[in-house]
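Hi support team,

I submitted a single chain yesterday and got back a structure, but I'm not sure I'm reading the token output correctly. Could someone confirm the output below corresponds to the sequence I sent? I've pasted both exactly as they appear in my results page.

Thanks,
R.
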Amino acid sequence: MRDLSVDHLLGIKQITAADIQLIFETADSFKQVINRPIKKVPTLRDITIANMFFENSTRTRLSFELAEKRLSADVVNFSAASSSVKKGETLVDTVNNILAMKVDMVVMRHPNPGAHVFLAKHIDAKIVNAGDGTHEHPTQALLDSFSIRERLGGLEGKKVVIVGDIKHSRVALSNIYALKKQGAEVMVCGPTTLIPKYIAELGVKVEHNLKKALQWCDVANMLRIQLERQEIKYFPSIREYTMQYGLTKPMLDNLDKEIVVMHPGPINRGVEITSEVADSGHSIILDQVENGVAVRMAVIYLLAGKINRG
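Hi R., thanks for writing in. Yes, this is the structure output for that exact sequence:
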């Protein structure tokens, strides 16, 4: 059996194009499983996985939990809001207490960038990054690429624009790394205030005009405005943002080609994307949700294969 080149999924930056290909081929098999009448396989019956979410999450946490249960793993859910973290317990102490319960893998979302790298050095369990601050969200980028591959047949040479709040988006950074590793061309589009200064160093194009970006691309990945991460105002008003960067059906109809529309969720309907677009034939948003379970099953399965081998 082919193996991942890494022992943990800490970020897309650390994995290779061959790793991505292996995850996708494994996810293809699992997608067949989750579309059968009996959606479970007994593959990870002896594995215990702790889901540790130090930030609120509904979709990602449920997707991971479903993936783990489809693989027949034992699942422990940990919420920081109701834990001893509130009493001052350190991250390592929290995790070591959970590991004392003989947990093999930790799926963690944490507000601090690099928390997963720190943890991987201190504890003896496989770590999956379910989002660290504004840094990375590797499984979201993998399921996004997997969904594009499914719709367009591959990523090589495809043009993907990521639109919106690039500055605060871990989804954007992970997607840029993943798309570039698979030979796609990447553009970011949004207000100047929401495009980080370092972005051109990643080898991506920058465009501030949404209509021009749509003319260029094969795929538009629409991000929500992350107001919860913004300490200051980056644009005058939501209404003004929507007028400049909101994707509407007439915009798509005016293009001389078909493009694919994506969104990592949760969608702010009527802000970055209208309901008409989100529910249209252009959209693969629900495919992304389904593919998220298959891709996360693949990641967990491949990392679990390394547990008894160190």
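A quick pointer for reading it: The first strand starts at residue 48 and ends at 53. Let us know if anything else looks off.

Best,
Support desk
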